[in-house]
Amino acid sequence: MKDDKRKRLSVELLKQALIELLQKKDMDRISIKELCETAGINRSTFYTYYDTQHELLEEIEDDILKELIVRFQNLSPETGLQEVIDSVRTCLRYVERNIDSFRALLGEHGDRAFSEKMIAANEAVIREWSSFGSADPDAEKTAYLFATCGGTSVIKNWIMDDDRMSAAQLSKLLGTLICKGYMGIFLSDPDKNM
């Protein structure tokens, strides 16, 4: 039990240190020595849990993506507007609580592949909606691009904006776009989920 607490604390300190350093410099310029000094732990502790700083980064990204995905797993094209808005708001509140991590990962020194991972995670969730059918495969393909790339871009810009609209405002806007735009192509009667 004591070892579990020690491990969780060490890992959390390393994650916080990497996020702090990514806000200042590129990943390739962050050494394990600097990472451990920033975290206040010794290098042997780092190597107990990770082989490289890139492995730590990947774990941070995977944890964040899992948290984002779980907030959208219960949605389908038949989901009502308010439920979609609530799911988006829950997601954005998670982002706000972890804003430093998102800014570090998506910022100028972050992992350029993280945006692509967000898009892929988003796409994996919404691809399940295709079981509801679509009369037009071209419309479905365009909708995937809109929902994955457009949604990720909007959230990225929202994260980076110091004077951003509230999570509640953006949730309502995105929820409406999702329900009236994207989800609508999977339903024969798009007004059914309104």
UniProtKB/TrEMBL annotation:
PROSITE patterns: HTH_TETR_2 (PS50977). Signal peptide: none annotated. Keywords: DNA-binding. GO terms for molecular function: DNA binding. Residues 31-50 bind DNA. SUPFAM superfamilies: Homeodomain-like. Coiled coil: none annotated. It comes from the Bacteria. Residues 8-68 form the HTH tetR-type domain. This is Transcriptional regulator, TetR family.
